[in-house]
Batch of 4 targets.
Target 1
Amino acid sequence: MAYMSKEGYENLMAELKRLEEIERPKASAAIAEARDKGDLSENFEYESAKEAQAHLEDKINQLKRTIADAKIVDTSRLSADAVQILSKVELTNLATGQQMKYTIVSEQEANLREGKISITTPIAQGILNKKVGDTAEIQVPRGTIKLRIDSISI
């Protein structure tokens, strides 16, 4: 089961619709165009178009599975007492003094540029269920970091 925000779920639905209604017909048209070019046994364009269609169908099926397993989190029932999925967290790296702001989201919604980190990342796992003022020691690829939780909001 994949817990996610309503916005994340709607984005997945929009992506699925785009793939099925726009990209799938394009892939079919590319195959038809390549097929019209003659001998299929030596037609690189045809093989390439078939391969692209197979990748597209895999992506569509994967999205459908994710959507089927999705559980939308009711944010009105969440609490800012401790870090959990959809929490907005302000942290301070105790070694460097650097401050960070993250929102803990599902893997499908993760986007570091937007400050959204997956609940499966070492940082998210390290601060899960912690409260304001708590410190977490987290193992990251570069070693261990100590993070203090400065605030939690929804």
Target 2
Amino acid sequence: MNFLAHIFLSGDNDLVKIGNFMADSIRGHSYEVYPEEIQKGILLHRSIDNFTDMHHVYRQSKHRLHKKYGHYSGVIMDIFYDHFLAKNWNTYSNENLEDYADNFYHLLKEHYDILTERIKGMMPYMIARNWFVSYATIDGLQIIMFQMDHRTKNRVNMHESMVELQQYYTEFEHEFTLFFEELRQHCIDKLKELNG
């Protein structure tokens, strides 16, 4: 799953959201230097990634992309799944997506000192281009894919995956819906475990 899903699945705790959001840039046991709620977010993120990577529905989605995009098929699929979350946001949240995004960007600014250097470097672009809201439309997604190509030095031309997205749109959306219900329950259970 990509950024929007990770944050959404963190529940209402602001520090858990931040920990989950920046977890990719924290390796091994180095998370233990952070406050307890941030640690929970990092551990939740890792649990989401493990659950996702092993899930047969997610693997089915990713398989359509693997031949052409190889290792990057997972990166692309994570972004596609964020698209379906953003597009169907009102099914999952009572809060407007624009407000949700603004509130999270504000949260990052409030807790700037605790963020990793990678997140600090990414933040201005994410906020200026409003990534979370951009996920909701095909046009917004296309721009994000071009940005991903730039970041990965055009190794596999991820923007071309928009062809597969439109070709298998119904299948991808159906798979996301099935998968996300199971992932949501997994996260509820994991947060209960982390909160002891």
Target 3
Amino acid sequence: MIPVIEVESVTKRYGDIVAVDCVSVSIERGEAFSLIGRNGAGKSTLIRMITGITEPDAGHVKVCGEDLAHRQVETKRHLGYLPEELILYERLTGREFLKLVAGLREADQSKIDRELEFFEIAHAANKLVGGYSLGMRKKLGLAAAWTGAPDVLILDEPLNGLDVEMMRKLRLRIESERSEGRAFLISSHVMSFVERISDRVAIMRAGRIVSLGSPSELRLTAGLEDALFEDVFFHLAG
């Protein structure tokens, strides 16, 4: 089976700084894959290359078997993306924003109300986004990522601004949809969430993946089988 994401020896430089250094990794259908590391490790740059926002200086990214560089518009429709720094259209209502996202993806708009209900912002669907709270904006961003039923959800710090109940709903939805074949690429600083949700975890340091495996395998590698997962992270991240 073809991986839904294939990253092949990608490198990205900014002047003399090597942000991502010859990284290769793949994500399978139905897998929850977490990418973690300290600030400046290269996670965001790698995610931006996977989503097609940033072009690699070397290497290739394939999404569902298609080279992102060759058919970017069509290929990106396989992806749903929640960036850490949300940029929303302040003068649109929540419903109008999701309709815009669906239109750009040439996706069915009939599921928009379902996403508004799931993320508990249906009551504000006809209000301007500029008046949304931080938590409501994050929920709208998540709803936008799910719009169009993409094959892969890329969620960068998805828990920021969410209450405990919504964090639980999000985790349960990821677990359910993973079992149905949807893949997830998640970046989060909440190590308990990373450990619970992930099939595999990649730890980045200085632009490279320095550890890769299931949470239990990383515990064995670190020799910290009974410690908190954040201790495992700090040990392996350096």
Target 4
Amino acid sequence: MSRNNYTFTSESVSEGHPDKVCDRISDAVLDAFLSEEPEARVAAETFATTNRVVIGGEVGLSDKDKLRDYMGRIDEIARACIKDIGYEQDKFHHETVEITNLLHEQSAHIAQGVDAADNKDEGAGDQGIMFGYATTESEALMPAPIQYSHAILRRLAEVRKNGTEPALGPDAKSQLSVIYENGKPVGVSSVVLSTQHLDEALTSDDIRAIVEPYIRETLPEGWLTAATEWHVNPTGKFVIGGPDGDAGLTGRKIIVDTYGGAAPHGGGAFSGKDPTKVDRSAAYAARYLAKNVVAAGMAERCTIQLSYAIGVSKPLSIYADTHGTGEVAPAAIEKAIDQVMDLTPRGIRSHLGLNKPIYQRTAAYGHFGRTPDEDGGFSWERTDLVEALKGAV
């Protein structure tokens, strides 16, 4: 039996967090290659530490001359990301950081299992399991703790970048403990916020005075009370931030990227991977399907799992769980999903329009719960499959 009264906690990290700097660079590399060729192959990993960024992995374009040209632009791409994030520290500055490019051409052995040939449909880029989740507890059909943890940091990034709060630095983390009554979020028992600041004289109390108004305006009315515990920069000064303070690596924030621990995760990271990699594209498809199931009124909560094998086009399994909230049997939802969407790698990319340079924007503040963009970004957040699902059950 599921619990109705409890407290659940999720965290988010800002675009200036060391791991998110790396996610951003990896996705910027991906976008650069996709802007040249929609079928480009990219699996880019980034490592960052004091005064140094290292980028490695596999890339592929059909035109070898253009591949060499784009390989020469990696330094420029990385510096532009670091500049936009806002790093101008002595030991991590967009102009002076040392950048090492170790990218190489994609393995032909991987390509032979993935590429379509001899009347064989394109296969998945890897084996694995992917999960999608949706819930009615927020307007975005996302779990409230992670959705509002993201929202706090996005708001603080806005006021930092527009000059309203120049004392704030790029590196930050937020954490919310949300109180649930009768299965619905009703308040916050604790707020944890650690943010880099540029003035060494500022105390924890000074930082709280800066950030508290933005936190209050971001959270639903009545969620913060006299009983809410506040922990703002609890260790004191936080001046040295980003990769100079702690090394970063692509793909280390997969729970931040998805559902904040409120739903299962298949284990695969997203950033730096082109959409032939089902770690990314099928996880987006699973979220899209779960969100449309909930938007269609079939359940208040829905988890979708998909599974794949490398070189095999169709999913090996489709699983739905409505956690006891369903108006439609999970088996009927599974059957409907199989009818209304082609879940081969190419079918997912076509349905969601994933062969576009739309990934750099996903690198911070979550891949889910965002507003779909007119250019196709966050297409997996659309609810345009509702009627088709209703008609298939």
